[in-house]
């Protein structure tokens, strides 16, 4: 399994970004997927996840209402739409593959990450 994130950038507070995660080497549509982030000097934390066909989504309280996770199973791609970005959203964002189709608590494969910086 291989995951490659893209879309990270420098953006001003209040701005938007869309992250993408291209998946390969496994049956993407059969697994729940998630996004995590790691700020400088801090541990990696959960951001959002969704089940194999995207019918159920989960968000960290800090991003709920501002971020939207989605997937295109035909294109083997996971997305994270981030709106109303805040400086505290600055982090490296990682895409992750779950160990099951609906398990959003166990992730076994990670991408290399993409940097998101929110600053004026």
């Amino acid at each position: 399994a291989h995951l490659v994130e893209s879309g990270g950038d420098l953006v001003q507070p209040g701005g938007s970004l869309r992250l993408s995660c291209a998946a390969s080497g496994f049956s993407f549509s059969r697994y729940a997927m998630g996004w995590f982030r790691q700020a400088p000097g801090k541990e990696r934390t959960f951001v959002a996840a969704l089940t194999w066909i995207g019918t159920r989504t989960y968000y960290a309280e800090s991003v709920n209402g501002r971020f939207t996770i989605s997937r295109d199973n035909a294109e083997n791609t996971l997305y994270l739409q981030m709106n109303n970005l805040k400086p505290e959203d600055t982090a490296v964002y990682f895409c992750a593959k779950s160990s099951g189709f609906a398990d959003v608590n166990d992730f076994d494969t990670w991408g290399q990450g993409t940097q998101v910086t929110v600053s004026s």
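The chain is about 0% helix and 50% strand. The radius of gyration is 13 Å.
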